[in-house]
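SEQUENCE-TO-STRUCTURE ENTRY
===========================
Question of interest: how does this chain fold, as expressed in backbone structure tokens?
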Amino acid sequence: MKLEDEMDAHAVEAYPEEACGVVLRVAGVSSYHRMKNVHPDPTRGFRMDPAQYFERGELAGVFHSHPDGNPYPSLVDMRGQVETDVPWRISVVRALPRGITDSFWWGRGRPHIPLLGRPFRHGVTDCYALVRDYYEERGVLLPEYPRSWRWWKDRGTLYADNLGGAGFHPISDGEVREGDMCVAQIHSPTPNHAGVYLGRGLILHHISGGKPFDRSRLSARAPISLLRNYGPRWYRHRDLETVP
């Protein structure tokens, strides 16, 4: 049985509580291990005792379920993924008929997702995730920033606070070339959207339709002119400074 099938079966059996488990690697072989959920209210969250698995192999992944929950990671989920530095997977379980309605991996090391045509999923395949994946394919590793859905509505400053530390510096409109990043402010009190310039007047970006998960909103190439009214600002990464 595939690891994902084992996880999904565990999620269905544990419902309405959250299932949780880990992928451990021993001698190059990965296997899924069910863990006890020791959260005070396992219907509302999960917690594992690390002692359950520390001596049993190398941690290679973390799994938990969202019973009747959201099809995207929470801020707490994203923080946990960054702390463990391994891919995480979530399965969404519904009651009637009981079963898995959605599942996904995220985090560096998760299965490859093409840059074009990916559905919008907050924290997994959103605009910043697309930018990160674009640069990773070019050998530039950007940090992950745990974020809640609509972080910008709470005046979050994901882009404003972190671009410099991630290796970007501002450039003028006249300097823009392929591989530079654009940051825009779309109906928001703070910059909340990003994409990458592809040349020939096109940008690679992934814009939401106002929902945290929307299969119809796909990452795409689009004319940069679409962002003209949203205060686009341009940035170049230091590791690509000398790339022609």
Summary: The first strand starts at residue 20 and ends at 26. The chain is about 15% helix and 30% strand. The chain has two domains: 3-106, 119-240.
